[in-house]
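User: Hey, quick favor. My workstation is busy. Could you predict this chain's structure for me?
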Amino acid sequence: MALLLRTLARQGLCSSRPRRCILYTHAAPMGTTAKEEMNRFWSKNAKLNRPMSPHLTIYKWSVPMMMSIAHRGTGVGLSGAISAFAVAALVLPGNYPDYLDLISSLSIGPGLIGMAKFGIAFPASFHTYNGVRHLWWDIGKGFRIPEVYRTGYTVIGLSIVTSIALMLL
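Assistant: No problem, here it is.
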């Protein structure tokens, strides 16, 4: 059908409905494979000397870009950790106090325990504060570039302060 409409449009036979015919002039004919269409696409771009789409390597890293990546990463990490903890609670034998006793019997120093607390607290606090920042954006506030950077640095600072406070408990 697409091939028929393309042929009719090229011959000027469907000029009574020019808008519809124009839409079908670029349609791929039925029977072509995805590989043939990809080859046609790349050869057309090579003939027209079009550049490839930009890749992450050409972008200058910025605070909003890193904040976005970190927000997604902490979200995935936290949901994975919560899911793993829930599965472990269902599958492993014993009770929660038994595992606390096991951890305390390992005689891990306070420095390592503090680092573990910070490692747990920072992703949770960062994701929470950055989520509040996103909620602020959802109501249409804080989109000017200086505000985006200021709120980004505020989220990082609050996350570090909160994590240190939780680490010291």
